[in-house]
């Protein structure tokens, strides 16, 4: 562990940083408790972190990515948690960090110690930069504190991309407006057929979904982040789907097929947590550039909302993120009723 500004405090706490052992039940439970406490403090409107997802992630290494996990212990208690994701097919100079300190142990130097540990580890495996995220309040929005920005700045990272989280409250959604939006989009989408599925992608759409998914970093604004387009092949897609199944995430997808070629040219998906049936995250929404201008984004998103609602009667809230400059997708989301909640800052640091 490298020295930090609060070294004296860290030494008095007898902090140790060790790899997370997936077979160590009490340690895993400690990590889950830390995750729940941190989100309750920092993002109280979020659903509690899903224990099924944690167990599924610990049970396997992902295709095309190696994940390393470490725990900061104070007197044997889990006080901090560090996740380092190393992509193996693309972005080979980067490492993605998740760094969390239990609210009861904050402002004691644990975050700095974990960051220093992460930098040493990332350098040791030959990576050149690290990326992470923090949340902060929007003007007039709920309080999110200032610790995330203060920590990122103190560590020497740069704010590289601003995103805004928006939420759709289905209990107050304007259903007639959603129906009108869907109808107007269908009128503009002549020559396209809507298709839906739950869970695994049908084989006949597999190659098209990989192509669309791989366009995400090319099409969406990435600000000042240094990122390459992701390599998404069939093995990677199936691996992700298997993880969702193991984590009990219910995935609802809607696409638009160009009837002239039979290709899937637009796609959107929602993921509903296995432990919080009231909540879902809006995932990918993409339209092939050659097929834009037909309201396909609005069509598949509004159709997928209807599709998921048919199967998830308890679903009430959906969260989505957009880069602050992604005006096209923001316009669709706000027309659907999504409203801003908070700001998410993507940080990047050369190491």
Write a concise synopsis of the structure shown.
Helix content is 35%, strand content 31%. It has 351 residues and is of the alpha+beta class.
Description:
- With 351 residues, the protein is an alpha+beta fold.
- The chain folds into two domains: 7-127, 3-Layer(aba) Sandwich (Aminopeptidase); 167-345, Gcn5-related N-acetyltransferase (GNAT) (Aminopeptidase, 3-Layer(aba) Sandwich).
- It has eleven helices and twelve strands.
- It has helices at residues 7-13, 25-42, 51-58, 110-124, 147-154, 175-188, 206-214, 216-219, 234-246, 296-311, 327-336; strands spanning 15-19, 65-74, 77-87, 94-101, 129-137, 158-169, 192-198, 250-258, 263-272, 279-287, 317-323, 339-350.
- It has a twelve-stranded mixed beta sheet, sandwiched between helices.
How many strands, what sense, and barrel or not for the largest sheet? 12 strands, mixed
First and last CA, distance:
16 Å
Report the CATH architecture of the largest domain: 3-Layer(aba) Sandwich
Give me the side-by-side strand order of the main sheet.
1-2-3-4-5-12-6-11-10-9-8-7
CATH level-1 class of the largest domain: Alpha Beta
- Strand-pairing-aware structural class: alpha+beta
Percentage beta strand: 25-35%
How are the elements arranged and paired?
Elements: H1 7-13, E1 15-19, H2 25-42, H3 51-58, E2 65-74, E3 77-87, E4 94-101, H4 110-124, E5 129-137, H5 147-154, E6 158-169, H6 175-188, E7 192-198, H7 206-214, H8 216-219, H9 234-246, E8 250-258, E9 263-272, E10 279-287, H10 296-311, E11 317-323, H11 327-336, E12 339-350
Parallel strand pairs: 4-5, 10-11
Antiparallel strand pairs: 1-2, 2-3, 3-4, 5-12, 6-11, 6-12, 7-8, 8-9, 9-10
Helix pairs in contact: 6-10
